Amino acid sequence: MLAERPQYILLPVRIGTIVISFAVALLLNFLPWKDVSLVPDFVALTLTFWCVRQPRLVGLGVGWLLGLLMDTGNGVLLGQHALAYSLLAFSAIGLSRRILWFPWTLQAMHVALLLIGAKAVEVFVRLAAGAPFPGWTLLVGPLIGALLWPAVSFLLLAPQRRPVEVDETRPI
Amino acid sequence: MEHSPPPFFRRGPAPLVRLIFFASLSIALLVLDARFKYAETLRGLFALAAYPLQQVATAPVQFAGRIAGFFAAQSSLHRENAELRAKLVESAQDAKRYEATAAELAQLRRINGAQERLGLKSTPVEVLYSGRDPFSRKLLVDKGSADGITPGQAVIDDAGVVGQVTRVHPRVSEVTLLTDKDQAIPVQVVRNGLRAVAFGSGAPGALELRFMAANAEIQNGDRLVTSGIDGTYPAGLPVATVVRIERDAVAAFARILCQPAGGDEKNRYLLALQNETKLPEYPVDAAKPESKAKGVKGKRRKDAPNA
Fold this sequence. Notes:
The structure holds two protein chains of two kinds. Chain A is an all-alpha fold. Chain A has helices at residues 15-30, 42-53, 60-74, 80-99, 104-128, 140-147, 149-157.
């Protein structure tokens, strides 16, 4: 199965790419959406991606800071997203060694579980703080996020891809 | 002979240790925020960091709105203009009458030695976005403490009360809508002056009057306005209309559902009102010891923004 897929040697990642991708994800999350429970959490998705691809650069600390930004931006309990993103980053780093060997569909399923887990932490925190359960439509957001996984992976890897066509003047 | 591992193998603390560190940090923050409200300075710091992103995120939507407005059909503009003109004439008469009545009322109050109501200061605000939180119903608006917004201000639109400012950052502030589960507003039935407290139901477009006796004199279509006795909301603002009453012989209280008057989440522009009514000092019971009376007073003030 692996032999069928062409494997590219990727360029080393630039820190700028990571920072910009997180900024764009935060921006997407802050957009004035109509129904927030149907919209995937773009920051969680991007965090999962970088934790899987670059576990040495992006980890729990980055996730925690992003979570605090999300908490303040949305005016929810401080620490709610921070806790969820820390756990998400931890599980994503744990998965990082094997998830990339699966085909896209299986990868998306793994990601769906991760995103649902992060959402479950948020829901648990809010229920503990005394909020009513907002309904099962909450699950739609993480599932759509998982469906977006191949697209997000393609987009975020694009800056690291070498050009495919052969160039005679290039040494390698 | 000591060997240190090459830099590639140096990876800092184990992931599990990091997880425990960050998770306990988050939980500490959660407890601080939920129980003691001590985390506001940290929140202010992060709010400042998130502010440019919020601005950039809402810019395309506002830009699109402006473009759409530019291409609005001439005929619809004409029609709207005519309608507004008609409305203006109508309300001009009302305004004249209101002025006369207000003057008369002020005079009567003066005669009776009652407290004079001061005029309302108001700040127009624009909605940036609604909070990305399915548990509560909040809006973020584009004015903050730098523009004179203070926590506890009532927020209205053209039809009635929308909510209350609950948290203020330097440049943005949070408005909790009336329909939020934890939001309550003191109201009065216009028809007979019956006082009640309307609570949010957590769902859009529904308020609930709780703790009303099963035989309370209230009926479908009753209009509810703010009673103003809490000193937070100015009196007489439309709040809701009663739409359904369930009187159950078993339950002690009637279940009364209301439709909010304010355009819950439809409006882009809202008005934050500063209530300048001076309430008389909270009566201190002479029989009670001083410290206890102080405690009661302090508690009341703390609860005031949510009252």
